[in-house]
């Protein structure tokens, strides 16, 4: 009866303790969420929730903290905190050694990294996943993934990613036993990325040192460990020596101790063991603890201090038990060797037997794992090959479809271009026709305007005197002759006026046609002077000056002569004193220049209407050929300046 009561009390107490423990956990959870809610800054709140996750990792509430951090950072668009939280999610499964869920979470982290174009977290976790796959024996998969990582980094133009991929590839080669390729990859990474940070340098030098040690290239291994030590010393300079620094220094010293133990350099071994003792404390992680005590055991074995040797080996074995079976098996053999040297053959035989059984079991387990890894690699290669075949087929279909679409597009573009060209041609023809119609209308308007205004006076004179001659019968011979002369002179003036008005109208409307040929302007200037001398003998004395013997210019010779003669001749009915005209021809760069002094057109022309028409004709003619026609004043004298392009 007492036993039953005692059992009931025990069960009741256990239930009460469980409820109390659960209640305490709930209180902690609620207090953390209340504290987070009280933080006003969203970024700090996210960081607080992530810190809570790391503190309580492994508990159910830890995932809630991280989910809240992810939801808050995503909602508030705090991209860095969101990536940190997703990264911590992957680390949680790394801590739980759940490679499958770690890879699933890696894909979510990848999507976010691509979205925010921040790839550091993604590549760091990718390397961690490959290391886990290597530890499981999937080295071929890790090598393929590392090469894919490099290709992806190049495609993303993420330089740091190519460096990380090189380190991942070297580690995979190391796990696969392809040491030369691993060394080459590490060395190439150092050359390609000389500005790598201290963490990367520590990883590279440490990796090279381990590889050289595996190949028994001890001088190179010692050199690499020394470089690693120098980098770590530089990083930790001026900083308090944290547990992380102590552990790393301890790993370097124990690695050097293993080399000196292999080459049986007792003096160097004790030297580095004492240096390792400076960094040893109770907070170092398990692997460093095991290495430290096993090396001291090996040293005491060489020194034949057997009590100290067995004590150190027992400490290392106790730490290995249940955690590191391979290291435990090696330590058992080490202890058995020590028993053999002390003459304890029975104990040595027992340890050898245990080590052999465990070794067979471990080898069997490793063979099974390797077989599973090879089968997995085979399936991966097969899947990749099928994927490649599907990709090729898909690309072929894409190429065919793209070619057909391209041909259709080319046909449509050519057809549209042809139609557009026809429409443009028709539009240009229509525009030209409209321009001609508008020019003809303008010419008609200008001609009517000019002829209406300019010919009124001579026409009235001709009509008036003609009526007198026809209606008056008592006119004297002198009067008849006088009126006849007036009619004749005004008729001639009217004809010149009409011709000038027609020319002016064509020039203003842009419809004048020219017969442009290459002519010698020097000769044309001389011909103009000869024409004026013949038409006005004894009235105009023209003087032509030039230093040029010949100057070939593209002009309409008829119009050029008309231009010059209008400037150096006198009016048709001029009766005044003798006029002297001087005109000079010169060349200025790519233009010819004619200067005319004492031009009768601007000094003795009494008919202002005719003078105005001739002036406009000359100006428009010169401007049609991109020249310049100006009247310059020097005191009271007007000088005509003509600039005309040579070609």
Give a description of the structure.
- There is one protein chain.
- With 647 residues, this protein is α+β, with helices and mostly antiparallel strands.
- The chain has a domain at 514-645: Histidine kinase-like ATPase, C-terminal domain (Heat Shock Protein 90, 2-Layer Sandwich).
- The protein has 22 helices and 7 strands.
- Strands 2-4-5-7-6 form a 5-stranded mixed beta sheet. A two-stranded antiparallel sheet has the order 1-3.
- The chain crosses the membrane at residues 396-418.
- Residues 450-647 form the Histidine kinase domain.
- TPR repeats lie at residues 163-196.
Essential attributes:
two-stranded antiparallel ribbon; alpha+beta; disordered N terminus
CATH architecture of the domain at 514-645: 2-Layer Sandwich
Radius of gyration: 55 Å
Structural class: alpha+beta
CATH topology of the domain at 514-645: Heat Shock Protein 90
Q: Termini separation (Å)?
A: 134 Å
Roughly how much helix do the residues carry, as a percent range? over 70%
| Main β sheet profile | 5 strands, mixed
User: Helical element count?
Assistant: 22
């Amino acid at each position: 009866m007492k036993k039953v009561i005692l059992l009931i009390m025990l069960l009741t107490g256990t239930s009460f303790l469980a409820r109390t423990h659960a209640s305490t956990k709930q209180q902690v959870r609620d207090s953390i969420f209340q504290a987070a809610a009280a933080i006003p800054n969203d970024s700090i709140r996210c960081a607080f929730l992530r810190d809570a996750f790391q503190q309580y990792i492994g508990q159910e509430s830890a995932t809630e903290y991280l989910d809240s951090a992810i939801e808050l950072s995503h909602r508030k668009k705090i991209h860095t905190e969101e990536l940190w939280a997703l990264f911590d999610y992957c680390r949680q499964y790394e801590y739980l050694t759940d490679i499958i869920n770690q890879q699933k979470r890696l894909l979510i982290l990848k999507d976010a990294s691509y979205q925010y174009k921040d790839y550091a977290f993604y590549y760091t976790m990718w390397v961690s996943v490959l290391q886990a796959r290597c530890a499981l024996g999937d080295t071929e998969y890790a090598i393929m993934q590392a090469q894919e990582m490099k290709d992806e980094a190049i495609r993303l133009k993420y330089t740091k990613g190519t460096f990380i991929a090189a380190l991942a590839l070297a580690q995979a080669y190391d796990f696969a036993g392809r040491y030369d390729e691993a060394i080459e990859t590490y060395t190439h990474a150092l050359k390609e990325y000389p500005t790598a940070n201290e963490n990367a340098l520590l990883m590279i030098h440490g990796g090279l040192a381990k590889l050289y040690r595996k190949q028994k290239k001890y001088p190179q291994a010692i050199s690499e460990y020394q470089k690693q030590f120098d980098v770590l010393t530089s990083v930790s300079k001026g900083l308090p020596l944290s547990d992380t620094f102590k552990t790393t220094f301890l790993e370097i010293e124990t690695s050097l101790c293993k080399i000196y133990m292999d080459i049986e350099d007792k003096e160097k071994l004790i030297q580095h063991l004492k240096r390792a003792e400076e960094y040893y404390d109770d907070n170092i992680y398990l692997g460093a603890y095991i290495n430290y005590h096993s090396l001291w055991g090996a040293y005491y074995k060489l020194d034949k201090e057997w009590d100290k040797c067995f004590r150190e080996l027992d400490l290392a074995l106790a730490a290995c038990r249940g955690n590191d079976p391979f290291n435990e098996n090696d330590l058992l053999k080490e202890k058995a060797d020590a028993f053999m040297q002390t003459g304890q053959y029975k104990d040595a035989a027992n340890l050898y037997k245990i080590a052999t059984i465990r070794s067979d079991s471990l080898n069997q387990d490793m063979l099974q794992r390797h077989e599973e890894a090879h089968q997995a690699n085979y399936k991966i290669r097969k899947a990749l090959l099928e994927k490649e075949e599907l990709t090729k087929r898909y690309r072929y279909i894409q190429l065919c479809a793209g070619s057909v679409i391209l041909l259709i597009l080319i046909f449509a573009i050519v057809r549209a271009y042809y139609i557009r060209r026809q429409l443009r041609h028709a539009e240009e023809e229509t525009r030209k026709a409209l321009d001609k119609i508008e020019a003809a209308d303008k010419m008609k308007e200008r001609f009517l305007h000019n002829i209406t205004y300019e010919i009124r006076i001579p026409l009235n004179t001709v009509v008036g005197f003609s009526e007198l001659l026809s209606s008056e019968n008592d006119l004297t011979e002198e009067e008849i002759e006088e009126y006849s002369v007036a009619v004749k002179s005004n008729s001639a003036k009217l004809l010149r006026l009409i011709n000038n008005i027609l020319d002016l109208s064509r020039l203003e409307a842009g419809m004048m046609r020219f017969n442009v040929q290459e002519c010698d302007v020097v000769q044309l200037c001389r011909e103009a002077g000869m024409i004026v001398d013949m038409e006005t003998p004894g009235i105009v004395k023209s003087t032509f000056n030039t230093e040029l013997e010949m100057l070939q210019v593209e002009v309409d010779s008829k119009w050029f002569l008309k231009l010059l003669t209008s400037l150096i001749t006198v009016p048709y009915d001029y009766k005044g004193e003798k006029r002297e005209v001087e005109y000079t021809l010169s060349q200025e760069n790519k233009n010819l220049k004619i200067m005319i002094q004492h031009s009768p057109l601007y000094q003795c022309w009494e008919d202002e209407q005719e003078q105005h028409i001739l002036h406009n004709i000359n100006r428009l003619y010169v401007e049609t050929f991109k020249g310049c026609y100006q009247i310059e004043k020097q005191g009271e004298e007007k000088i005509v300046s003509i600039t005309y392009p040579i070609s």
